[in-house]
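Sample entry (494 residues):
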Amino acid sequence: MRVVFIAAECEPWAKSGGLGDVVDALARALRLVEGGPDEPVEVFLPRYRSVAVPAGALVSTVVRVPDPLAPGGLSEIPIIEVAADGYRLRLVDAPAAFDRPAYYGDGRHDYPDNPWRFGLLCRAALETLAVESRPVDLLSLHDWHAAPVALYRDRFYRDDPVISRAAIVLTLHNLAYHGWTPIEQVGQLGFGVEDAQAVWDAAGIDLLGAAIVRAEIVNTVSPGFAREALTPAFGMGLDRLLRAKGDRFLGILNGLDTDLWDPARDPVLAAPYSRADRSGKAACRVDLLERVGFDPDDGGPVLGAIGRLDPQKGFDLIAGAAERLLGLGARLVIQGSGDHELAEPLRRVAAAHPARVALIERFDREMARRIYAGADLFVMPSRFEPCGQGQMIALRYGTPPIVRRTGGLADTVVDVDEQPGRGTGFVFDEPTPEALLAACRRAIELRRAGGEPWQTLLERGMAVDFDWRSSSAPRYLEVFRRAIELRRAALGSS
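Predicted structure, serialized as tokens:
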């Protein structure tokens, strides 16, 4: 089975959120599962300005790619081969499209030529596969950036012996972003007005929606969010299309790279620790507090939060509850980057209480690890969350999560008061500061009481198995095989 991923992010090369983590970890895990692909998964990724090409990487081919913005309608694009950890990384080296300060925009607005940029990624990947003339069984597309592949396969490659036979599985990591391309921009995709009408409608093209229609199978990254996405409240305007897929739309819970996220072997931490011996966590707590300028001898609860500053993530709920959390004796360590306006209430709280609230406005891999290990509790109050990895990492690092009951958070965290013998964290329902505060109060009180109830909570959380190889990667293989069967049946071949 030859499996090809196409994505806008892949950790550690390019990452702004969980998408990059999943693409990297799943590509590696598939080869480690019994019955997995007989050759490394290939991952096509843009060569962004920030992507450092390792010494020894070579240009495997230069492909002539249909490019609506290039003179003559063609661009020659090098494909750089990188030996990644367990898979084959293929960088699409198109500087005009990807040599920019950021992946998607300037922090306030998307780049206006994003349809062209990611359309070029998709055409370059398909042209590379077509030129190589080796059978491709499965195209794994991740979010809207890769969605043009489904349109191109059925419109421009329907007679190509390689591309036309490839099945498509579209994975929805975030339904909030569709890649909407208005009619005046569809030319960036290589389409004309009449194409737009055929693909979507006269107003333009919803790339994610159009790919949902054309993919053999569509999945999202948790069973809970798959159920929610079928409703108008969470389907982001695509619930009708997802319902129409029937059993060809499903949820597969994201896994966790347990080799990468392991407090017993994490080189960043001040001290290692494990489920069997958690004593090193105290040193990690002291290290974190000293780094952010807090008193390490203060035994009050430390609440950590890490994520993208986006309305989805609920950081405004933390800001709204912050003063009352401080009144409970808590201290806050928050790391986030993104919307500058969303950060302002947190800045004000941090400025008013510099010894008790730390706001780290940047993406810092090492600091994130220190927060997971050094905090006493981890706060993740998302309004919606297709899966989320923060709560999984927090559990593995012995830091009970406080989460809202939505999507993958509801699938992965069991409320300790609702199920005392199985609980792994604290869950609340309403997206309000008051509901978050109530859950935090329960967590703080249990920690303050200490003893066996608190220690067994930590032990149960660290025992949860989210390893990709246990269930998630095998489930993806099942879905890939089914998609291949559906494609072959549709083409009338075995």
